[in-house]
Amino acid sequence: MSLSNVTLAREDIVRLSGRIEEAQTRARAIPKLTDEYRDMTLADGYAVQSELRRRFIAQGQRLVGWKAGLTSLAKMKQMGVDQPSIGFLTDRMARPEGSAISVSDLVHPRVECEIAFVTKASLSGPGCTPEKVLAATDFVLPAVEIIDSRFSGFKFDLPSVVADNGSSARFVTGGRPRYPDELDLRSLGVVMEKNGEAVGIAAAAAVLGHPARAVAMLVNILAELGESLPAGSFVMSGGITEAIPVAPGDSIVARFQELGDVSMRFVE
Ligand code: 0L1
Ligand code: MG
User: Fold this and answer.
1) Ligand (nearest to CA of 162)
2) 124 lies in which domain range?
3) Could you report the per-residue pLDDT of 178-191, keeping only the tens digit for each?
4) Is 238 in the pocket of ligand 1 (CB under 6 A)?
5) Residue 1 lies in a domain
6) Which CATH number belongs to the domain containing residue 103 in this structure?
7) 44 contacts: CB under 8 Å, gap ≥ 6
């Protein structure tokens, strides 16, 4: 993968980041970007995502972390893409554990169970490995990501979804933080319950064989973008269970073996 192949003109990158920003803030579905920009590359997608991040930060949002996305083979197959991606998280996306989350400002939200890492040492690529990630990890904690593709019918390709910040919308953490060397992060089981019924059951190895591998992948993509992960970073490592649609009235409890529960409900 090379992220140096930016083909779009600067004015198109700015224009497309504005289009994504409007779709996100007005909760409006738009056609995937490649319908208009057919030759858009993955590098172009990341250039639009970086410009979106610059805009949000200029508006006063704070960067609070990163997320790996499309990290399971099942998810890549479901969405018709062939490699994982990364996105950024800001303070506007965070919601408290147990809270009521409004969906009126989202297009078609879905929830997924993820393991989040908090680092105690900086990480940089290329060549970041799961072992380096685990050595740099302070603790892990359970999280639920609420994704919301802004593309009509959840139909997109990799450059478009990367430009849309990997469908990032909201996230919730909870449960109990644990040191990673106290756990087997591959076999750690997760059950997603919607309205009291188990709708997703999986082990964390669904994420690239080990969730630390997704964080290493994220660090290596950051390196291609000329960035690194400072100590104290929060990183969500990607969906363990498949993404489940939610609507007003739904309540979600994500139960993580060893790490505890994360819950929330959805309202108009
Ligand atoms: O976090 C994720 O894996 C989402 C990536 C984007 C794909 C989607 O919107 O389902
Ligand atoms: Mg996710």
Assistant:
1) 1
2) 10-267
3) 999 999 999 999 99
4) yes
5) no
6) 3.90.850.10
7) 5, 6, 7, 8, 13, 37, 159, 163
